[in-house]
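Hypothesis: this fold can be encoded by more than one sequence.
Test: take the structure tokens below, design a sequence, compare later.
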């Protein structure tokens, strides 16, 4: 809620929603998540914003956090035409399932079981590597994009986020590392603690 207040006080209208199977939203896809399914919600929110009388004449930018960042990149890959009028994206803490699973297994002392675990996930959910990492989809991003991430986040690795950033083919992009922490939550709190860089990005491309 603090994030929304900061954006509101900076003069922005905020449209926010629960992804399917999360929060107070209904269940979809048998309860299975993943950026491929969530990408539909990103595209749906854009169509809603363009159609609703309260928002149809407003400039659009995306503040897509974590799974939302993954889903936004994948939506750009699937339906690039839906993003023709999107001015920019701020995307904190995207991550690949592969990197998260690898770190979890390392912490449990079983790093050699990664391939087996990913195989079991595919059997249970039909989710393939293509839709459990945003790295390939990042190549379809065409809007100015600002990523930020806790560098030593215990749930992922720096090279995972760096690979996403490197794959984005536009010149207007930025990657900001958050130092002196291993807690992923510090990345989520960064906008509340230091909103200036993100607000500057929005102002530059939505002003």
């Amino acid at each position: 809620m603090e994030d929304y207040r900061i954006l509101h006080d900076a003069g922005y209208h905020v449209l926010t929603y629960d992804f399917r199977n999360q929060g107070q939203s209904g269940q979809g896809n048998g309860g299975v998540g993943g950026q491929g399914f969530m990408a539909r919600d990103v595209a749906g929110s854009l169509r809603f914003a363009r159609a609703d009388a309260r928002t149809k004449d407003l400039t659009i930018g995306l503040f897509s956090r974590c799974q939302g960042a993954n889903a936004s990149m994948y939506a750009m890959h699937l339906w690039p035409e839906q993003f023709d009028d999107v001015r920019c994206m701020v995307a904190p803490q995207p991550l690949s399932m592969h990197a998260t699973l690898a770190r979890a297994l390392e912490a449990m002392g079983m790093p050699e079981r990664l391939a087996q675990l990913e195989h079991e996930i595919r059997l249970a959910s039909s989710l393939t590597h293509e839709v459990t990492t945003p790295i390939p989809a990042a190549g379809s991003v065409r809007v100015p994009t600002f990523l930020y991430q806790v560098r030593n986040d215990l749930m992922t690795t720096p090279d995972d986020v760096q690979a996403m950033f490197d794959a984005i083919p536009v010149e207007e992009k930025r990657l900001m590392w958050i130092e002196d922490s291993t807690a992923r939550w510090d990345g989520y709190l960064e906008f509340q603690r230091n909103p200036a860089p993100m607000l500057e990005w929005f102002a530059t491309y939505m002003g």
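The chain has a mean pLDDT of 90. The chain has nine helices and four strands.
Hypothesis status: open.
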